[in-house]
Amino acid sequence: MSLFRRSPEQRREKALRSARPGPLHTYLEAPPPDLGTPLADLRLLAVDIETTGLDPRRDRVLSIGWLPVDGGRVLLGGAGRVVVRDEGG
After folding, report:
1. Does this model's pTM top 0.90?
2. Measured CA distances, 6 to 1, 9, 56, 76 (Å)
3. Do 66 and 47 contact (CB within 8 A), yes or no?
4. Which residues have a Cβ under 8 Å from the Cβ of 89 and sit 6 or more positions away?
5. Nearest to residue 42, comparing CAs of 66, 71, 74, 76?
6. SS3 of 13, please?
7. Could you report the per-residue pLDDT of 58-77, keeping only the tens digit for each?
8. Is the dihedral of CA 16, 74, 46, 41 positive or negative?
9. pLDDT value at position 4?
10. Strand 43-51 relative to strand 80-83: parallel, antiparallel, unpaired?
11. Are 27 and 18 in contact (CB under 8 A)?
C-alpha cells in the first residue's frame, strides 16, 4: 500500500515501529490532540526553514529556526536557530 493511501494513524504507527528510543519515539507515542481542541489550549512549535530555493535537487537548507508557543504565550526562552553549514563545498 502506498504511503499516501494510509491514514494518518497508520503512518504514525508505522513510524513508531521503526523509530529508535529518543525524542522522535517520544513524540510519536504521544496521542495527537482532539480535532476540537482550541488552539489556545495547545503547546505548539513554530518552525521556519530558510532555503536557497524550492528544488531539492539543486537547492539547500540555509538555516532552521524555532519558537515554542504555549496557548497564547510565545516562549522566547525556548527559541533557537541553527545555521546549516555546507561541508561538501
Report:
1. no
2. 7, 8, 25, 37
3. yes
4. none
5. 71
6. helix
7. 999 999 999 999 988 999 99
8. positive
9. 63
10. unpaired
11. no
Pairing of strands 61-70, 80-83: antiparallel
Kindly state the cell numbers that stand for 49. 526553514
The radius of gyration computed from the CA coordinates of the chain, to the nearest angstrom, equals 17
**pLDDT value for 2:** 54
The Cα 40–Cα 73 span in angstroms is 9
pLDDT at 48: 97
Which grid coordinates belong to 67?
A: 519558537
What pLDDT sits at residue 64?
97
- Report the chain (89 residues): mean pLDDT per 10 consecutive residues: 71 86 86 90 94 94 96 93 79
Q: 19-38 b/e with 16+ CB inside 10 Å = b?
A: eeeeeeeeebeeeeeeeeee
Amino acid letter for position 70: D
Q: What's the CA angle centered on 63, arms 59 and 67, to 5 degrees?
A: 135
